[in-house]
Write a structure and sequence with these properties.
- By secondary structure, the protein is an alpha/beta fold.
- It has three domains: 116 residues, Rossmann fold (3-Layer(aba) Sandwich), CATH 3.40.50; 109 residues, 3-Layer(aba) Sandwich (Rossmann fold); 47 residues, no CATH class.
- The protein is 34% helix and 22% strand.
- It contains eleven helices and 19 strands.
- The strands form five sheets. A six-stranded parallel beta sheet has the order 5-4-1-13-14-15, sandwiched between helices. The chain has a five-stranded parallel beta sheet with strand order 7-6-8-9-12, with helices on both faces.
- It is globular and about 65 Å long.
- The two termini are 22 Å apart.
Length: 332
Amino acid sequence: MLGTTTEPLIAAYDLAMLDLDGVVYVGGEAVPGAPEHLGEVRTSGMRVAFVTNNASRPPETVAEHLRDLGVEAGTDDVVTSAQAAARVLAERFGEGARVVLLGAVGLEQALRAEGLEPVEVADDAVAVVTGYGPDVLWRDIMRAAVRVKDGLPWVASNTDYTIPTGYGVAPGHGVLVETLQNFTGVEPVVAGKPQRPLLDETVRRVGGERPLMVGDRLDTDIEGARNAEVDSLLVLTGVTGLSELVAATPAERPTYLAPDLAGLLEAHEAPDSGDDGWTLGGWTGRVDDGRLAVEGEGSAGDWWRVVAEASWEHLDAAGEPADTSGLSVPDA
């Protein structure tokens, strides 16, 4: 079930850990209203961290891109899966450990920042770390795969199966991870979402005692928050739409839900369950004969919350998502 708070999220929590693509920007453009909403979040005193599974770009590059979009961001506000992977390796093997690097400059810099020594694929090493790197050579992947199969410990920055590019959605690092898993029979230690090292590293670097994960993806951002045992806010400015929301498994369900980042500035009330279905803010939703219907009038945010609760109740009972073909999504 969704959570309730009588005060705005910026007061209930002291750190917002924000995913980037689909939350702060989409492609090369800021999400409408995001710079202004985040400005208000900072003015309130809430800490802000930008959390990304992309291990190829150094934090300073990410921060510069955010500033170009009108979003206040410093290098220390950005935490990457490369940094989380480097932390995992440093804690296990210690300063000065030699690590085979298959990835881009962001991962190399993260290793060096933790006192680790990146080495070539044929060099003596205590582990191998992999991350997205468009210039990684196949012969190096082959050599690393053999070494992992022979027992060399393996840390993967993330398992994202796709990555957005200027020419469309392309294969991400998760495709390489799957290839290596199939060949080696080895499961890597994964640093990025939905595993918890990245969010743990974010809290360690940025601070905060009451963190809130803010994301648009159910299977990385929201599931990652659950794995890290922190609350989450799902925003609907990215990849999650009606069909994804009604099919969310218990592990993928957020604490709060809002159309956009303005949800950080608001108190949140969860729908109530009654004989007529789930009700909130003038909306009533229920599933009859497998079809979800929502009636009434109110805000777009409350509509989505009613949809979520009614559809999840049905999914848990019936084992299949509700039919949403008759629904019209209200304007935000």
